[in-house]
Write a structure and sequence with these properties.
With 250 residues, this protein is mainly beta. It contains no helices and 23 strands. Helices cover 0% and strands 50% of the residues. It is globular.
Length: 250
Amino acid sequence: NLISIEEAHNTTIYQALLSHDLSWLVTASYDGYRVWDMETGELAYEGLGYVGFISALKWSAGSELLGVGFNNGDVVIYDAITQSEEIYDISNERILAIDFSNDLNIVASAGDDNDINLWRRTDGRTVVTLEGHIDTIYDVAFSPDGNTIASASSDYTVNIWQGITGEPEEYGQFITSLNEHTFRVKGVAFSPDGNLIATTADDGTAILWNAENGEILLTLEGFTGYAKRIAFNEDGSLLYTYDWDGVMRI
């Protein structure tokens, strides 16, 4: 059944994102973010009291948590179970990318400061800062097992880092860089089994990589606009891309 939400916000809605289990829809506007119950279409939560443009939205894999990034460097974590939120002052720059470790204890966030911050959700304290990109980071993703982190940057590269494995001082150690794209890399995603990495960039291509050795398996071409985001479906059999020309490709 289709649900129509009338007058969802008082101003323009510029982002919307379904949770992975399809239970929740988050919408972002200049008046804040709102979470909607997809079964009833009713408002479940209204995030208020923020100054700034919402620049990132990300649900955790199990749909328990929602990360909301702002252009002032703040990150809000909304808990769909308790319907509560916490505000974290993470950066002085715009947040464009958020992801959660598989145990939900560590959050990765990145954006215009060119670094990735790994921080604890319990207290917002930074565990480690991943330095290496020389331009804006548009996307960041944990592998399904949490052992690897991939980051997509405007410096044309995708960096691969050690994730939440080993001792804390080993978190975020640089592993390698994937350098085939020739323009800003906007999206990165791991397949559900962790064997593939998919990337998409403003060079009009999407690339499938072997996650273990960084080998290129397939280059997808034919985009007519800047490719913006990329994602796998739940079983990894389909790959979705969408770009600025308004076209989604599967």
